[in-house]
Design a protein that fits this description.
Strand content: 5-15%
Helix content: 40-55%
CATH superfamily of the largest domain: Type I PLP-dependent aspartate aminotransferase-like (Major domain)
Strand order of the largest sheet: 3-7-6-8-9-10-11-5
CATH topology of the largest domain: Aspartate Aminotransferase, domain 2
Distance between the termini: 44 Å
Oligomer: single chain
Radius of gyration: 24 Å
CATH architecture of the largest domain: 3-Layer(aba) Sandwich
């Protein structure tokens, strides 16, 4: 949907404020003045100023005019609800990812669990058992291996989202699960609201499906500002809210249940489909598994659909490539799309995973994984803060196995310099469409704690010390 003249004028004025052309408490042009400056109608000017006032950029002073809000810098910290007519996941992302995945370097940049923390021996045994199944060489159920779907539905129900095996579609990983879900409820040109920062792989999906994007920033201590979210809905009329409520990659944020409930209510009331990425949901550091956002969504037959997407990539093995979508009202459309691209999911792998789940205590494995990642996250945090002399600002995650780090340096440059030490990080520019995250980077704690690894990490952190303690090389 093309922006109106008043929306475009509002965008231009917001950019002027964000760039510092108007300081806090400074008077901005009157409606008549802006009408002349921008060659627009008075009604267009009034509507544009209404948007600025609603979104907290300006306030009205009786008989005086419009002024920029005080403490405006705290408001514009982070990408301020940027709207993008199209997404271009350019070649630069691919080039950076090749560097991040370089096997010659210690990869702190890729969010891939280390083999050391995966049950590889048990998986070997399970797959040997799987190949004794006579049906393994045949096409499987179009929706996925029935026993595996039954296991997923029971476990999903325990986490708070009550579904049955018929509500589950097996996919090739979580990314495909998200893609199919988006494909089933959008058309080219539709708008999607996404958090910022967000998992880099989603940009390729949004680009391929030709979707427009609004970035809503995570706000410190609250996650998502509900008033801000509702204003975006009214203004952009999005078709989908694509979100990770539990340990978002890359910043590890966990939303409170009250916020989840409010977000779910807003989506339902305004008819917005909800697609949730819950791939890190099982790797929590608290006492209990957090409920997925979709579990707070209305279960009425009419209205928008909710989709919960996940996989075994972060807990069992990334190479297995088995993920799933669960949806009470949207699974038929997802399954129809899946059948258009393949006649069956990987049957041997599904059976192999099911053999593992039958013989092994998955919950015991997860408990060990959670304790290990929580310990590593704290150990890495302490090491990085200490050896950088406090020059790194690190978001301590509530789960998952990545750290989100802010420095005074450009993340792309940090990556290039990190290579000289023999390691990689993921620059923050990968995780948003705006340039706000350029001075951030993501770091994977699942790499482990061998003496060599800790030595490299310490050397890396020391590069951030201020001049006078250590010569700045970045």
């Amino acid at each position: 949907m093309k922006e109106t003249k008043y929306e475009q004028l509002a965008e231009d004025l917001i950019k002027d404020i964000r760039l510092g052309h108007y300081a806090e408490n400074e008077k901005i042009p009157s409606l008549r003045e802006i009408q002349l400056l921008k060659s627009c109608s008075l009604s267009t000017a009034k509507e544009a100023y209404r948007i600025l006032e609603e979104e907290g950029y300006i306030y009205v002073q009786n008989k005086s005019g419009f002024y920029v809000q005080p403490q405006i810098n705290s408001l514009i910290l982070g990408p301020q609800n940027e709207f993008y007519e199209s997404v271009e996941a350019d070649d630069r992302i691919q080039q950076i990812m090749r560097t991040v995945m370089d096997p010659k370097l210690i990869s702190f940049g890729a969010a891939i669990p280390s083999d050391h923390y995966l049950p590889l021996k048990e998986l070997d045994t399970a797959f040997k058992k799987a190949f004794q199944h006579k049906e393994i060489y045949r096409y499987g159920d179009l929706q996925g291996y029935p026993y595996l779907r039954e296991w997923i539905s029971k476990r999903t129900s325990i986490s708070g989202y009550r579904v049955n095996a018929g509500h589950v579609q097996i996919t090739t990983g979580c990314t495909e699960a998200i893609t199919y879900s988006l494909f089933s409820v959008t058309s080219p040109g539709d708008t999607v609201i996404v958090p910022s920062p967000i998992y880099v792989g989603l940009f390729q999906i949004l680009e391929t499906l030709k979707l427009k994007v609004v970035e809503i920033p995570y706000r410190e201590n609250e996650g998502v500002n509900l008033s801000e979210f509702e204003k975006l809905i009214k203004r952009h009329k999005p078709k989908v809210f694509l979100f990770a409520a539990n340990f978002n990659n890359p910043n590890g944020i966990l939303l409170k249940d009250e916020t989840k409930q409010s977000l779910a209510n807003l989506c339902y009331v305004y008819g917005i489909h909800l697609i949730e990425d819950d791939i890190y949901g099982d790797i929590y550091f608290g006492k209990t598994r957090p409920r997925p956002l979709v579990s707070f969504f209305s279960e009425e037959k009419e209205g928008p659909k909710a989709f919960l997407c996940a996989s075994f990539s972060k807990t069992l093995s990334p190479g297995l490539r088995i993920g799933w979508v669960t949806s009470k009202k949207g699974i038929q459309s997802v399954s129809k799309i899946a059948r258009a691209f393949k006649i069956s999911e990987n049957h041997p792998t599904q059976i192999g995973i099911m053999e593992f789940l039958k013989k092994q205590n998955y919950e015991k494995h997860l408990k060990k994984l959670r304790l290990e990642y929580k310990s590593l996250s704290q150990e890495y945090f302490n090491l990085l803060v200490t050896h950088s002399d406090g020059q790194l600002r690190i978001t301590q995650p509530d789960g998952g196995f990545v750290l989100w780090i802010e420095s005074s340096l450009d993340g792309d440059k940090v990556l290039m310099e990190a290579k000289k030490i023999g390691l990689t990080i993921a620059p923050g520019s990968l995780f948003g469409l705006s340039k706000h995250w350029n001075r951030y980077f993501r770091l994977n704690v699942s790499v482990g704690r061998s003496p060599k690894i800790l030595e490299k990490l310490s050397l890396f952190a020391k590069r951030f010390q201020k001049n006078g303690k250590r010569k700045q090389t970045f």
